Amino acid sequence: xxxAAKGSLTPTxxxxxxxxxxxxxxxDRYHGNNDIGLxxxxxxxxxxxxxxxxxxxxxxxxxxxxTRALTGAAIISRGREVPLQIIPEFREIHFGAWEGLSFTExxxxxxxxxxxxxxxxxSFRIPGGESLLDLSSRVLPRxxxxxxxxxxxxxxxxxxxxxxxxxLSQALGLPLDHxxxxxxxxGCLNIIDYFPDMAVVRLLNGGVNGLAAG
Length: 214
Fold this sequence. Notes:
- This protein has one domain: 3-Layer(aba) Sandwich (Rossmann fold).
- A 6-stranded mixed beta sheet has the order 3-2-4-1-5-6.
- By secondary structure, it is an alpha/beta fold.
- Residues 1-6 and 208-214 have low confidence and may be disordered.
- It starts with a helix and ends in an 8-residue tail after the last strand.
- The protein has 7 helices and 6 strands; from the N terminus they run αβαβαβαααβαββ.
- Helix 2 (40-52) packs parallel to helix 3 (67-77) and helix 6 crosses helix 7.
- Strand 2 (60-63), helix 3 (67-77) and strand 3 (84-86) form a beta-alpha-beta unit.
């Protein structure tokens, strides 16, 4: 599609948010499916984001079914007549035996498995958990359904670092084994415009001030 033709269409805009800081305050632990809540700072991060998004007309509000994402989405939905919809497929990757551990602890307890993951980042399945391919296979089809439901509308998804990286990797045309090149801070905002034949990432790991970028 030529640039002029693309410019004449209204895209489906996805505001993709990572949940706020978790209750234990750790940035180095792999919580995965552990249902940990938000810290007071994490709540504040989402309240600030919600305030900045007040004037954005949202046709849909979606969240993972884990508390840390649901809490953030509930904050954003306050005062809106749009119902919050829970999407289990947007859960964080299941880290299995590694859940709740730091990278150092994983390296000490599961050195062979960690090395195997480094060799095959896409397909290696964490003991008792998931691979990146497993994650992608449940996230992307559900995302496609939601985008199709909201053609030429705006919606917000509050999810997790791994889920967001999968979505962003697809939008950017990056292979999954490059996924960790994309940073996702607590409470960050990404903006993706979906046109019929392509996606355009307007904001990555930023704040809502990037809204003016088109």
